[in-house]
Amino acid sequence: MHQDHIKPLRSFSVADRIVGELDRALNNIFCPQISSRPYPPSQIKQQPNKKSGHEVLSGEQKELAAGLMRVNHAGEMAAQALYQGQSLTARDPKLADKLKQASIEESDHLNWCRQRLDELGATPSLLDPFWYAGSFAIGMAAGIAGDRWNLGFLAQTEHQVVRHLDSHLGRLPENDSRSRAIVEQMKVDEQGHADLAEDLGAARLPDVILSCMKLTSKIMTSVAEKI
């Protein structure tokens, strides 16, 4: 083929990127996605006396599990937006690529939580668009501050998530092995993201920022469990 006929690669404008992010946001909030990894509960060995992979949970147990999985789903919705915002404003292209890869794992978490909510006959938080928009803005701000601060914010966010998941494992019904399988795999992944951020040179955030993050997280988890 003659060089004259080779079309140059298209360079995306700011408007293109905004439309792309809006499309991604709408898909994450309203549309179930395809996971890149198997659904953790599908790996649970079925007991010989069970005819289905679903445990028999009491009404109270289902309500508790649904509330906690709704919180996890809201948290993963926020994580999706946070990583996207951070990757857009990261200065080092390699860091942006690592953030996008972490975003894929967070997308798996989002899909698993949504699927478990469906199994429990529950719905995601009505405030998901708010969680997404707020986290996207925070992620962009963290990236603009510089890559070390970007990584520091990521590391602290993931440490908080790991603590939340630990508390959920303590609250989930012992016989709800499906929810527990999801939360346990999420915990492994989130700890891995925190370790990666620290290995890449994450800065330690000021105490005032850490306090604000804890307060924001407490508000989100308290509200999302009910709404």
Which structural traits does this protein have?
mainly alpha, Ferritin
Describe the structure concisely.
The chain is mainly alpha-helical and 227 residues long. 71% of the residues lie in helices and 0% in strands. The protein has one domain (58-226): Ferritin, CATH 1.20.1260.
Structure report:
By secondary structure, this protein is mainly alpha-helical. It has one domain (58-226): Up-down Bundle (Ferritin). It has 7 helices and no strands. It has helices at 14-30, 59-89, 93-119, 128-145, 147-171, 177-199, 207-226. The chain is globular and about 50 Å long. The mean pLDDT is 82.
The number of strands is: 0
Helix content: over 70%
Question: Any idea what the CATH architecture is?
Answer: Up-down Bundle
Order of helices and strands: HHHHHHH
> What overall geometry do the principal axes of the alpha carbons give?
globular
Topology:
Layout lengths: L13 H17 L28 H31 L3 H27 L8 H18 L1 H25 L5 H23 L7 H20 L1
Helix pairs in contact: 1-2, 2-3, 2-4, 2-5, 2-7, 3-6, 4-5, 5-6
